[in-house]
Write a structure and sequence with these properties.
Elements: H1 2-19, H2 24-31, H3 35-47, E1 52-55, E2 61-64, H4 77-85, H5 88-94, H6 114-126, E3 127-130, H7 146-154, E4 157-163, E5 170-180, E6 183-190, E7 193-198, E8 202-211, H8 220-233, E9 239-244, H9 247-254, E10 259-262, E11 271-276, H10 280-289, E12 294-298, H11 300-316
Parallel strand pairs: 3-5
Antiparallel strand pairs: 1-2, 4-5, 4-8, 5-6, 6-7, 9-11, 9-12, 10-11
């Protein structure tokens, strides 16, 4: 809880530094908390010596005094990664780094001076955590080669890896690490082409003294997002259009689908919903799982199958 609040307070300070006056409701939406929580956070910041003040009026909100700038000095590698990654307790030990502990909280209310900002940006470019996990089992032990891969990407050093079933090592230029769900991935260049490698399939690692030049315009987060989009575009697509309300509408919010969109409810509470369920089986399972207040609009063959299933259910249950 302390870590979560410290992270939120840091984000508030950075937001106010960059935007001037920000309304409590806007901060509450961005940070996914209540406006009451924002008011308590402002009291905590003021008590800690951060000069926040309330601006009244229609364009009012919260702001920092104009000359306020914080300074995060003495930023270590672990602290820089903790600031960017956020979930220190689980992730940093897997990478072979020490957890900086609660001492970091004392630095979170300061603005970043140019040197520390560069260090934090360096960390952000070398590791990205995608929290939108796949449907996967509980994680086991982290790959033993993670610390070596992090050091190589951190210092722009060429590595030799034996990957998958290959018997010979492959020369890679490691750009950074990504954690997706419970799995770690290495993003690296091979013969000038950026590729993704599952860390658990790397069976041997040699970090060389050879350095490589990382492209100045390469952004790890953007690259990962593009790579994920390209990967998903190769999946089969089976779009479904439904009409739902009541309990079916609530279930539709957490039902599994590649993508979904919901229209505004009509006067009777019906909502038109569109899903991409990947295949026929997924579409049928979705339609049947939402319950009684569900109407299949498209495709026609799914509507017919749901109708047949409902008739069969009535027959079996008298």
């Amino acid at each position: 809880m302390v870590r979560m609040r410290a992270d939120r307070l840091l984000r508030i300070v950075f937001r106010l530094q960059g935007a001037g006056v920000v309304s409590a409701s806007a901060l509450a939406r961005e940070l996914e908390v209540s406006t009451r929580t924002i008011r308590r956070d402002m009291e905590a910041l003021s008590t800690a010596g951060v000069p926040v003040y309330s601006v009244r009026g229609s364009a009012g909100g919260w702001a920092l005094t104009g000359n306020y700038r914080t300074t995060l000095t003495g930023l270590t590698t672990s602290e820089a990664l903790a600031t960017i990654v956020g979930q220190t307790r689980d992730l940093l030990p897997e990478l072979g780094l020490d957890d900086p502990g609660e001492g970091l909280v004392m630095k979170l209310l300061a603005a970043v001076d140019p040197n520390a900002r560069g260090h934090a940006e360096h960390a952000r470019q070398r590791i990205h955590v995608d929290l939108r996990g796949y449907w996967e089992p509980v994680a086991g032990d982290p790959p033993a080669l993670l610390p070596g891969l992090l050091q190589a990407s951190w210092h722009n050093r060429v590595v030799g890896v034996r990957y998958g079933t290959a018997s010979e090592p492959t020369r890679l230029e490691p750009y950074g690490l990504v954690r997706k769900g419970i799995r770690w991935y290495l993003v690296a260049a091979r013969d000038g082409t950026v590729r993704t490698y599952r860390v658990s399939r790397i069976h041997a690692l040699t970090v060389t003294d050879e350095r490589f030049t990382r492209p100045a315009d390469f952004d790890l987060r953007r690259h990962w997002q593009r790579a994920q989009a390209d990967y998903a575009s190769g999946f089969a697509s089976y779009p479904v259009r439904l009409r739902v309300r009541g309990d079916a509408l609530a279930r539709a919010g957490w039902a599994y689908a590649r993508s979904r969109s919901m229209a505004e409810p009509d006067a009777d509470g019906w909502v038109e919903a569109r899903f991409d369920t990947e295949d026929w089986d997924g579409a049928l399972a979705l339609a049947l799982s939402l319950g009684r207040e569900t109407e299949v609009l498209e495709p026609a063959e799914l509507r017919a199958e749901v109708h047949a299933a409902a008739r069969s259910l009535v027959t079996l249950n008298g």
